[in-house]
């Protein structure tokens, strides 16, 4: 029961701001997050867990939605920061190590860019989570 209360508190804190900032592109991430969160919550906490999991999953899924095309274009056109080599595989949804320097994107302060293992990645700077690998 204590875990369920903690999950509900996290949902209340994360749910509103993360979902409110979603664009139309974020709806797919939110929908996938809701579905995945509900399934995981149902396994852990039954019907109540499914509801809480859906809220938390929706918030996190929306937060990891791909950036708008204008941000991707700007990242492709801006001079690349120096590449950093790390042994860990880079993947969307995974945080970058603290040793990787992030460069803010001028017209989109909600995103930063880094070059890791010769790949440009768009990152959510507060959590350092990779939201897109630019190819």
Radius of gyration (Å): 16 Å
What is the β-strand count?
A: 5
User: Mean pLDDT score, rounded?
Assistant: 74
How do the SSEs run, as a string of H and E?
HHHEEEEE
Count of distinct structural domains = 2
Structure classification: alpha+beta
End-to-end separation in angstroms reads: 45 Å
The helix count comes to 3
User: What is the share of helical residues?
Assistant: 40-55%
Strand content: 15-25%
Largest sheet: 5 strands, mixed
- In the predicted model, the low-confidence regions spanning at least 5 consecutive residues are 8-28
Oligomerization status of the protein chains:
single chain
Shape: elongated
What's this entry about, in short?
This protein is an alpha+beta fold and 135 residues long. The protein is built from three helices and five strands, in the order αααβββββ. It folds into two domains: 2-63, no CATH class; 69-134, no CATH class.
Characterize the structure shown.
It comes from Sinorhizobium terangae. By secondary structure, the chain is of the alpha+beta class. It has 2 domains: 62 residues, no CATH class; 66 residues, no CATH class. Helices cover 49% and strands 19% of the residues. The protein is built from 3 helices and 5 strands; from the N terminus they run αααβββββ. Strands 1, 2, 3, 4 and 5 form a 5-stranded mixed sheet that branches. Helix 1 crosses helix 2. The relative contact order is 0.14. About 16% of the residues have low confidence.
């Amino acid at each position: 029961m204590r875990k369920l209360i903690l999950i509900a508190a996290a949902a209340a804190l994360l749910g509103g701001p993360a979902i409110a900032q979603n664009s139309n592109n974020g709806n797919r991430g939110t929908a996938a997050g809701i579905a995945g969160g509900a399934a995981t919550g149902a396994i852990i906490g039954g019907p109540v867990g499914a509801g809480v999991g859906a809220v938390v999953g929706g918030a996190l899924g929306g937060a990891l939605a791909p950036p708008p095309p204008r941000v991707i274009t700007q990242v492709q056109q801006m001079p690349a920061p120096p590449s950093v080599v790390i042994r860990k595989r880079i993947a969307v949804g995974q945080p970058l190590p603290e040793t990787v320097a992030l460069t803010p994107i001028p017209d989109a302060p909600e995103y930063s860019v880094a070059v890791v293992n010769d790949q440009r990645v768009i990152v959510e700077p507060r959590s350092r989570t990779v939201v897109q690998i630019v190819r």
